[in-house]
Amino acid sequence: xxxxxLIIGLSxxxxxxxxxxxxxxxxxxxxxxxxNTYQTAFTGTSSISTFSPGSQxxxxxxxxxxxxxxVLTYIDNQWKARDEFGxxxxxxxxNVTAFYPVYPDLAYTKENLYSKGGLEDVLYAKDExxxxxxxxLHFKHLFSLLTLQLNDDLQNGFQKIExxxxxxxxxxxxxxxxxxLAAHETHTTSITQVSSSGKYSFIIPPAENMTITINMVTNxxxxxxxxxxxSFTGNKEYTYHLKTSExxxxxxxxxxxxxxxxxxxxxxxxxxxxKTLDDFGETTNGITTYYLLNDIDFKEVDCTELNQIGxxxxxxYFTQTFDGLNHTLYNIPINSxxxxxxxxxxxxxxxxxxxxxxxxxxxxITSKSxxxxxxxxxxxxxxxxxxxxxxxxxxxxTAYPTKTNQSANTGGIAGTSTGEITNCYV
Length: 426
Prior knowledge:
This protein is mainly β. The chain has helices at 110-113, 152-155, 254-264, 371-374, and strands spanning 3-4, 6-14, 33-39, 48-50, 56-63, 67-75, 78-80, 93-100, 123-130, 135-141, 144-150, 158-165, 168-172, 179-182, 187-191, 199-204, 213-218, 221-226, 236-244, 281-284, 287-291, 296-297, 321-330, 344-347, 352-359, 362-366, 376-377, 380-383, 386-388, 391-393, 396-400, 410-411, 414-417, 420-422. The strands form eight sheets. It has an eight-stranded mixed sheet, with no helix packed on it. Strands 20, 21, 22, 23, 25, 29, 30 and 34 form an eight-stranded mixed sheet that branches. It has a five-stranded mixed sheet with strand order 1-18-17-12-15, with no helix packed on it. The longest helix has 11 residues, at 254-264. The radius of gyration is 27 Å and the shape is elongated.
């Protein structure tokens, strides 16, 4: 069967944990364990979940508490064991480590961790507490999450995706949460159920310098690729965007959009950080169409080199076609300048912007900016061409006029327009 190549883009989201401070009390006091929250996903913006009553954890403690592999059950807002634990020393600290789930033999070994085909998501809480008061446990993910986002060509007709990871967890020490990796072993995890979102996630060990292999079958074709060697950290999600090399070019990541904004506005540079305009669009009968192949969130992206598309004041209008393919740009910065302002600053009579959604973006204008007259918008500052099937949602335009009776030409879809706007909404 022929192998085809995949194109990959990466973004990383990290999650941090928190630490509780406890108050000193006398030794001999009963130790109380509360706190049953955990981050639902591996991202800082995900919701917090709670363990249901009857859930069990495996707990170890040293120092002012001496607890060895005890199972605690969540009852009446507390983690309780068959026998109560008392503080042995009120002047020291205690180190507590807890795990979920609890395996029948209390062994966190390869046989249990991979019993369902892939590496199981293990939650753990590990912290140092002052002797005496309530110990509040906050759980996070011990392993890493690898998420593969497929483009439409790969998602349509999806049959199977496999991830081969050259690191295998042989054991976890319940007392310390230390992970032991098996030497020279590889584990392959498969997913055959179609995901409606096009995202397929795999739990992988946090390990250094791993080269992960991806194989997938869609529409009877088998595709393969390898991720660049990378070190993975526990409690973090790593998202890769996959598309086929046979697919029409397009913008996949925030970095792609920044490169596109640099190249489309320049008459002097033809390459930006290894990218060219040919990577983002294709030309048919003299008309170039650029494509957005994924939703992109700019919230945690360095956008210092991001430009708007087209500048009216220099006569550098966008003259081609941009097809967003109904994808959304979230939190994209829009910087007010001395001219028409928007994600697309200026679109001329031959230019078309279509099927693009903008959400949660902001722009501010002042009396010092000529954009007040030429047009300030979220999507297109000054439109002479066509804007088709576009949406602006939960965005904000703020004006800070300093001159009396000053007006500004503003709008969600366009600041000023002598062209066509069809089937758009704000």
